[in-house]
Each structure stands twice: as C-alpha cells, then as structure tokens.
## 1
Amino acid sequence: MSIKQTDERYIAHTYKRFDVTIVSGEGSYCYDDNGKRYIDMTSGIGVNAFGYADPVWAKAVADQAKLLQHTSNLYYTAPCAELAEILCTRTGMSKVFFSNSGAEANECAIKVARKYAARAKGDEYYHIITLNKSFHGRTLTTLAATGQEIFHTQFTPLTEGFLYADANDIEGFERLVRENKVAGVLIETVQGEGGVNVLDAEYIRAVERVCRENDLILMIDEVQTGNGRTGKLYSYMHFGIRPDVVSTAKGLAAGLPMGATLMSEKVADVLGYGDHGSTFGGNPICAAAAISGLNRMDDAFLAQVAEKGRYVRERLEAAGFAVSGMGLMIGVETKKPVSEVLSSCMEKGVLCLSAKDKLRLLPPLNIPTQVLSRAVDLILEALSE
Ligand SMILES: *Cc1c(COP(=O)(O)O)cnc(C)c1O
C-alpha cells in the first residue's frame, strides 16, 4: 500500500489532507515523496518558527535529548525552570503552567479564571465570555469556548458557562457582563482560524477597562499570535494592555508540542498543589527548544518579522487584493474560491493555508527575503489566474 492508502486505511478521517506526502524539509522549503520542492508559507500552521530542520533548533533538541528527555513533574529540571523565567521576564507575568497544546493552555486559563472568581465573588461567577468567530481548541471545554456553532453540533453537552459576544461591539460585551455572573474573558487579538480578523485596538482596550471595573480575568489566547508571529513577542504588546492570563502554544517550541499559560501577579497563586497537572508539561526537550527559540527572538528579529509582513501586504495590496493580519500572520481576500487558489499554489510549488474563505499565510519567521519574494510572485500568479 502507498503511504496515502495506509493512512486512509488506519487513521481516523478527521483531516481532509491535500494529496501530498511531505518527507523532509530544510529552512523554508520542504520536499514531497516525488522530490518536488515547495516554499512553505504555512510553518505547519504557525509552528515551525525557524522553518524545517533549523540547525540551531536541532542542536538544542539533540543536546537535550542526549542529556535528559523526560523525567516527571515530581522533580525539578533546568530547562522548564529557565524557560519559565525567560517567559516571565519578557512579558512581566509572574508564573507559568506548562502543557502540550493550545487547547490545554486555554483549559488552564479557564480553570484559573473560574477559581479566581469563585474565591473572589462566589461559585456562581463561572461564566466566560468569548467572541463569535473565535477558535480556542478541540477539547469539550475549549470547543465550548470557540464561538462557532459549526464545531458544537454533535458533541453536546459541552462544558456549560460560555457566552459569546460579537468582536468590536463593546456595548454588547458590557451587556453580557451586566446580565451574567462572569469570571473572565478569553479573546484572540487576531482571530486566526476565524479568518485572520484583527480586532480594533480601541475595542481591545475597552475590554481591558471593563475587566478592570468588574474584576474579570482578561485572558488573551496567543496560541497562534504569540512567539513573534505578529512582529512583537506576544500580540497583546501591540495594544498597550496588561492581560491577567496569556495562553500560548503553536510556535513556542518551534516544532515540538508545548503549551504555556502565563499568569500575572493578580492570579499567580490561584492554582495550588493538586489543582492542575500534565505528565508531559514542561518536557525538557520541548523546553530546550523553546529557550533556544525565544533567545533568538530579540528586537531585531521581531522588527524583521514586522518588515516582512509589511512587504507581503504591500505587494498584495498593490495588485488589488485586500489583506488583513499583523506581521507574518496574513489573510488575503481571494476573487475565486480559496480552495482553487490553494491547489494552484501547490502546483506552482508553494504551500499556503486558508482561514474561512481567505487565503492565510504563516511563513517561517526567518524566511529569507528572496524566498518570500518568490513565494509572493507565485501566490500573485495563483490569485490572478
Ligand atoms: C490552534 C489554536 C488553538 C488550539 O491549539 P492546539 O494546539 O491545536 O490545541 C487554540 N487557540 C488558537 C487561537 C489557535 O490558533
């Protein structure tokens, strides 16, 4: 049987895969089983921040693998302690809980908000407000948090206590806060899966104000926007706000599974012994990869992410396409169905993503300018055919 046949025979059909088998990669290129080369404008959905088989990343991973690949959270280990210190130092947050995915990072955030509110205001203050068109994960609780009906049907009952507001409608948000017993708010600054929709800066700041006035926990889901993707280390830093909780994953360990939930001083001590846990959380190899990655994401690096994002936006807009997003998280309105654009790009040797009916681009953050320029040439061809 071919790889495709074996996969289809033995793996649950939850993914509609493209008809391509990827076997290897180097930098911003990957190769299929026929040896065809693609420019990767997906980074494995915002994960491979430094592209494929990056030598610095690979050395950090290999060195740690030879030393200690896993022990358990019953013991102290250097990589996760060091990573937590880096995350807190660079964000001003106070404490970190490590997990393995975005959904888990959000689960932890929700537990923090609910326990804080239960202690501060009473057990009945358990509601969490999220936004329509949001995406927060696939567990039953993060599906409930996800403000898209399409994901909810067939899996009910989901975790109760979630309320949905329309993005950029502060009055609607305030009404939900007034009429319900609310613990906190969970939002993405740029809705990734929902169509690369950037929230209004004024709205984000107004949400923060309402949270302060009502003692609500402000949680920012930085699973996709975090770790340099938007041109700042975390996207909330563009808006001058101070979240109470930040969840992140995807690009954090640049290709290994790792989630983190960052807690501000206000909620740093909410989770106590036995309140939460994860067997793999803070895994030394993942932590070593994340340390290596974050240490490379200095101001100059982040500035070049922003600059490359501007370059892509300018070229697409000059050709008459509407572009949304921030940094190297880019959405493009297409004139024909996005599935056709994706296929045409693939034929031309560029891998791209979609988000709802938009073309979505999430290239490696260190993609060389010439490769990026070539990718944009090919994408423009595909968009204009
Ligand atoms: C991808 C994503 C998630 C879910 O992350 P997993 O690692 O797949 O669980 C949650 N929130 C946002 C904003 C995401 O983009």
## 2
Amino acid sequence: MNFLPFALPETGEEEIEEVADTIRSGWMTTGPKVARFETAFAEYIGARYALTVNSATAGLHLALEAAGIGSGDIVVTTPYTFTASAEVIRYLGADPVFVDIDPVTFNLDPLRLQNRLSVMNADEKSRVKAIIPVHFGGQACAMTEIQRLAGEHGLAIIEDAAHALPCTYRGKNIGTIGDATVFSFYVTKTLATGEGGMITTDSEEMAKRIKIMRLHGISRDIWDRYMTSKPNWYYEVVAPGFKYNMPDLMAAIGIHQLRKVDRFQQRRKAIAEQYTLAFKSLPLRTPIVKNPEDVHSWHLYVIQLALEKLVINRDVFIEKMAEKGIGTSVHFIPLHLHPYWRDRYGFAQEDFPVAYDCFRRAVSLPIYSKMTDVDVERVIKAVKVILCEGVRA
Ligand SMILES: *Cc1c(COP(=O)(O)O)cnc(C)c1O
C-alpha cells in the first residue's frame, strides 16, 4: 500500500531549470535572483518592500528588532502556534504574553486581547510594545480589532503569515496591513523553497534596518554611497547583525513558485470544500470560514473530533489513519504545554483552556495541490470508516 504523506511541495521543470541556471552562473548566494524574487513578491502582495530571509523565524526576529523590541519588553501573541512565533521574542530578551484563541478560527481572540491589555498593571503597561497575530491555517486574524487595540496601546503589529499566502482580510492582502508581515517558504508551506522567508513592509525605516541586520550589520547605504570612490573590497559594519540572507539557489525556486501560488490555492480550496461536504454528518467539526468573501490560503485543514461522541481519542484516530497509509499532523501543541514555556513562565494546562481544548480534538488532514481526486477520496473514506467504528454506542 502506498503512503499518502501529510504534505508535499509541488515543483515543476521551471524550478529545476532555474536552479540549474543558478548553479551554472556561478552566483549561488544572494544576488540577481533574490532581487527578482523580491520585486515580484512586492508586486504580488502590493507592499512597498519585500525582503528575503533564510527562514520566517529569521524574518520575525528581524521585524521585531527593527520595530525596536528589546530587553524587558513584552510582546503579545497566541499560545496556539509554532514555537518560532514566540522564541524570537526571547531572542531579544523580551517576554511573551499569551492570549487565548477564538475556538472557531484558532486565531488570537480580540475580546480576550482587549481584556488582557486592560488588566495589565503599570509595569506591564510600560513594557508592552508589540502584537504578533498568527493567521492560523491561512485564515486572517480579526485585524480591524487588533489594529484598533494596537493603536490605543501604541503597539507595533508584526504578523506571522507563515500560513497566509495567499490570504486577504476585508479585501486587503495579508502583507499590507501590519507594520511588517513575515511569510515562510519552508518545504511544507504554500510557497516552498525548502527553507526561506519574506518580510513585507511599507516602512522605509524598517526596511533599511532589516536590510542591514540580515547581513552582518553591513550598511548598504554606505556601501552604495562610497562604491564609486572606494575600492570594491570596502564595507562598513554599523551593528552586530545576523546571517539571515537568502541564497539565489532558493530564490530561483521561489520565482517560479510565486507564479503558481494562486493555482495551488484554488486546488486546496476545492479539496477543503470536498472534505467539508463529505464530513457533514460525522462526529467532528469542520473548519469554519468567518468571512467567505476573503481569500483563505487553506494551508491547513483542521478537523476537531467530537470526543464526547467517540470511544476513541485523537491519538488513536491518528494511529488508525496511519494504519490506512495516510499521514496527518497536529497543529499545534499549545506553547504553554511545552517544557520550556511552561517552566519559564510557570504555566498550567488550564491557563489557556480554549487552546488546550482545541489541541485535544485537532487533526490536520492532508491538503496540497499534488493530491489527486483519488487521494482526496481515500482520505474521506478513511475518516468516515474510522469515525463510524469509533462512535459511542
Ligand atoms: C512554519 C512556521 C514558522 C516558521 O517558519 P520557518 O520558515 O520554518 O522559520 C513560524 N510560524 C508559524 C505559525 C509556522 O507555521
């Protein structure tokens, strides 16, 4: 029996040819293909700047740094995410404050956010500097409410859009709303270069700082200004920067992936609709789309098992899917359950009850453009059989 993986990138001869061309050219690191990828991406999103990095994690770190986050600051985010969203806060010596999620979207709950901000003591109030909304699964967060609260409290908005390409909120592309937005091109994401990421921003000041910090703190402005009068070995270091640049080898793949990103989304959307229709009367909750007129990237399709009606739990369901040769995953193990976050901030399981309850029920099913109709039918049949056998008498 052949195994259906949980995720697979879709690449064609175009990507292979472009990578081969990069190798033949002799210019494998950051160069002309990165410039092409950035220009095309900025145009696609409608952002003033698009800046490549070697991962979304690096991008989130740089965006927070450029927003001025430093030691002792507080950044608000969700516990229902990958650890990268929060670890970057710690890189800068700042602390996360987690706010529980909306059980319908798995996104930061704007009402809980408002409450958490309003109960902050004077010390917390003086330290809180930014919000990281995570567009879970590719459905946009409640950005109107988040922007209003950020405005009231003077907070920067750095969006974790690792799942959100393409994605819109009230007609605007994600990537054009917050102070900066960070996309991931990790192999499982909706645009895959193996490893990689992109930061979009309209702020010239942030773009300048990010460009300097992503490559050793070397100032390009100084470089360009003196290029004609200084010998070409000359450069100036203005800060202790990082080594976060994207090589042309990755950008070569990205250029072609970007052209296909809408087609990939259309296929995933069709799969999501098929799943939702097929699972209608099963003991589970299918994903709920809050604003049907907006683009959902459908990076993830997360079902929530109605555990009350079942004799099997989520882990057994996943084992049974694997026995039928189908890969699944869980998004996410909430951060407050992980030893590092739990012990560092003294969290208990019940501190984020919505996140915990969603986690207990959540299973991510395969959803990617390379899936055939037969693959989709196979997943549907497996879910039906397992849940019909597992239903409480
Ligand atoms: C994948 C992911 C990241 C990290 O992306 P990398 O490109 O692997 O660094 C960050 N946040 C979320 C929500 C993710 O799913």
